[in-house]
Amino acid sequence: RSSCPLNMLPFLLLPLVSWGAQLSDRTDNDIASSILQKNYESSEVQYSKSGMSGKEWEAFVQAQLHLPMRKKDNEHHRRQHLARHLHDHHHALRQAHASAVRKEEDPSMRWMHFMQYRAKIQNYNLALKSIAGSQYVGDIHIGTPPQRASVVFDTGSSNLWVTSSECGTYSCKVHNKFHHNYSSTFTDIGQQMDVQFGTGAISGSLGTDVFHLGPVHIPGQVFGRITAETGQVFLNDFDGIAGLSFSELSATNEKTLFDNLIAAQQLERNWLSFYYDVNGHSGIVFGNVHPQLYHGPIHWVNVNKRLYWQVELYDVTIGRHSLRRQGTLCPQVAKGKSCTLVFDTGTSIFTAPSSSAGHMLELMETHREPLCYHVADKNGRQRFCFDYSEYTEGDQVQLMGLDVDAPKGPLHIAGDTWIEKFLTVFDHDNDRVGIALSAGRSRRRNV
């Protein structure tokens, strides 16, 4: 990922989407823009009526998603692996939390007692971070003629990386590779880059080429070609990572993928909306999002800092229990003060600082009450909640402790579990995040 990734997961690039081949020779931005607008308008006419059958609904959703995404092929095995590691991780959190409670009556000081357990907790984190990345991948096309790559679209980082055909390490054998010599539009910048992650490292060089994301065509995009990689994390079934966060998080001074998407003026609104349906179609919508993909209004929250897609986290509650009032919302943050919530599509589950996670885990397992995130900006506070069944899987709480040091942390992370309930819009025009109840989730509940 970037030089300061959230879950320390490195990702690479692979292929998908037939749009790339169709648009590879187009240079008129107005053509792509009109395609996007036409799709939106025509589908509004065709699907304006309610009460669609299951097949009609799936066809409608598929038509709305400009960039389809799918679950990884080994999802069942990965989930089992994650469950085993979460079991051990939760055991370490419970031990640390119990010790902190015994040693210190003031909850706001419990983070100090977590330090003696932090090494043990972090050992579990290393294993978790290598398997807890997004379960959703999508295909893009690179170069002329287009070469496909399967990538994780990651709002928790800002850089774009692809496995190169020059990579000779063992883990590269499981990935599709980008052959730069096959692309007539590729340019080598000649700049080397080494990036260290929590669970591995990559080396490579920077280049530019044409990128196709569904119907969107981006020429001259800077990206990294991975020529060497170390770490078990790279044995996962994806070929790259497409970072979609702010340029302030980037490991280079080059324009990010989102920056170039804006500069190309191909979208009426510079929005990327993530729609996940565990039992149906999932993907990304560019620009306008059809109102039938969500229920009720879109609730907007202003970003509090251009780094991650992050907002002010006023409180986390489990039932009537408030972490803010008890002083466990964030370590080293004064009682009654706010923390940060990051929306990260590169992470599967919820995370919290270890000391906060220990308290949350106790409350979640004991009371089994709704988990609510209270976010705030200059316009006021809003609350978004998850029932016990929505933040657990197989009766296991989908939460891990993850410590991000200052100045970027401490922080809480909302991963794929969040988007499976709430359609989430990343609005680059106004630096804000939009949240609305996903129509896919509500339809499943009504069936």
What does it look like?
This protein is of the alpha+beta class and 447 residues long. The protein is built from 10 helices and 24 strands. The strands form 4 sheets. Strands 12, 13, 14, 15, 17, 18 and 22 form a 7-stranded mixed beta sheet that branches. Strands 2-3-8-4-7-6 form a 6-stranded mixed β-barrel. Strand 12 and strand 13 (309-318) form a beta hairpin. Helix 4 (75-103) runs antiparallel to helix 5 (110-129) and helix 4 crosses helix 8. The chain is globular, with a radius of gyration of 21 Å. Mean pLDDT is 79; it is low at 1-49, 111-132 and 443-447.
Radius of gyration: 21 Å
Count of β-strands? 24
Q: What multimeric state do the chains show?
A: single chain
- Estimated share of beta-strand residues: 25-35%
Mean pLDDT: 79
State the shape: globular
* Distance from first to last alpha carbon: 39 Å
| Sheet of most strands | 7 strands, mixed
Briefly, what is this?
By secondary structure, the chain is α+β, with helices and mostly antiparallel strands. It has helices at 19-23, 29-46, 54-64, 75-103, 110-129, 257-263, 323-326, 354-367, 416-419, 439-446; strands at residues 67-71, 136-142, 147-154, 160-163, 187-197, 200-213, 216-230, 240-243, 271-275, 282-286, 294-302, 305-306, 309-318, 321-322, 339-343, 350-352, 371-377, 380-386, 392-393, 396-397, 399-401, 412-414, 422-427, 432-438. The chain is built from ten helices and 24 strands.
Features:
single chain; 447 residues; alpha+beta; 7-stranded mixed β-sheet; 6-stranded mixed β-barrel; 10 helices; 33% strand; globular; disordered N terminus
